[in-house]
Design goal:
Layout (H helix, E strand, L loop, with lengths): L5 H11 L2 E2 L4 E2 L3 H13 L5 H13 L7 H6 L11 E3 L7 H16 L3 E5 L9 E2 L4 E2 L3 H14 L1 E2 L3 E2 L2 E6 L5 H5 L11 E7 L1 H9 L2 E6 L2 E7 H15 L3 E4 H7 L30 H5 L8 H11 L1
Parallel strand pairs: 3-4, 4-9, 9-10, 10-13
Antiparallel strand pairs: 1-2, 5-6, 7-8, 11-12
Helix pairs in contact: 2-3, 5-6, 8-9
Length: 307
């Protein structure tokens, strides 16, 4: 087994090492952690011993490491998710459903999952709420509720919650959303991204007017390029919001016929193209490169194990 650095050992002790407070059972080595995790993961397989051995071989030289939730939950008997990332369902525009989704988010975070929501379905600030004689507080205010919940919930192994929130570029509250992190105390637990459409980008290029609409009704008209400049300025100042080219994502989605993506919670895939000093190169290309610590065959084998 390769030697671990001090920071790696610290992360293992904090996030991965199994401890049972009731029995005082504490794993003493990383190999013990890998052993109990692999036993749990491969128990349902047809050839558990063979697959587990290949898995342990990859772990032993740090060729492959599963996501953190596997280490925190597998083989522990705890009520914890083995998945890191979730995109939650659409939030219906009524109070009971909003707080029902908040409860679902809290339970997901408690079990160790990270979540992402689209808040575009919530009515704009000041819109009348029929039946109760009040005005809506807008999606950004409800993000404050999610943010407070996330600061409160502690997941397995001292894991704090991780959340993302999106809003469409034509929502009437989009400018407040873009500026939300100008106050460093607001929405500290949320990563924010604007859902940018093809029509909006065309309007930016042509410096056209841009209608802000909710539920088919127009509420304001601004310059598209001014909104885009606001996104860029805020991103430069606060690193938020990001942009999600949502029409491009849906056009490339091979499940387009049965779903419409409105939020994302991504992990890098084998064909992702991280930037390097010279160019953007796919993970596969880097694995096949002589600059990587293990060769193409090892990368291929690790990919098979991961699947």
């Amino acid at each position: 087994m390769s030697e671990m650095s001090d920071i790696s050992r610290q992360i293992w002790e904090m996030k991965c090492r199994y401890t049972d407070d009731e029995s005082a059972n504490v794993e003493k080595t990383v190999a013990e952690t890998w052993s109990h995790v692999s036993a749990a993961l491969f128990a349902p397989e047809r050839e558990p011993a063979y697959r587990r051995r290949r898995f342990l071989d990859a772990l032993s030289v740090f060729r492959f490491l599963p996501a953190g939730r596997f280490f925190a939950g597998a083989g522990t008997g705890r009520d914890a998710t083995l998945f890191n990332c979730f995109v939650m369902g659409a939030i219906p525009n009524d109070m009971a459903s909003i707080f029902g989704n908040l409860k679902e988010a809290a339970l997901t975070l408690q079990q160790g999952g990270g979540i992402d929501y689209d808040f575009s379905t919530l009515r704009l600030l000041g819109a009348p709420v029929r039946g109760v004689g009040s005005d809506a507080s807008g999606p950004v205010s409800f993000m404050d509720v999610w943010d407070a919940m996330c600061r409160t919930i502690m997941g397995p192994r001292s894991k704090r919650g991780e959340m993302g929130g999106t809003l469409r570029c034509d929502h009437p509250d989009i400018e407040a959303f873009i500026d939300a992190k100008d106050d460093p105390t607001k929405l500290r637990m949320l990563n924010l991204s604007v859902l940018v459409t093809d029509v909006f980008m065309a309007a930016v290029r042509q410096d056209d007017l841009w209608d802000l609409r909710f539920d088919g009704t127009g509420h304001n008209t601004i310059r598209a390029r001014g909104l885009w400049d606001g996104i860029i300025r805020s991103t430069f100042d606060t690193a938020k919001p990001g942009v999600i080219f949502i029409d491009r994502i849906n056009a490339a989605n091979n499940l387009y016929y049965c779903e419409n993506i409105q939020a994302i919670n991504p992990l890098p895939l084998h064909d992702a193209c991280p930037a390097t000093a010279s160019s953007s190169r796919s993970v596969t290309t880097r694995c096949n490169s002589s600059t990587v610590c293990f060769g193409a065959d090892a990368c291929s084998n690790a990919s098979v194990i991961a699947r």
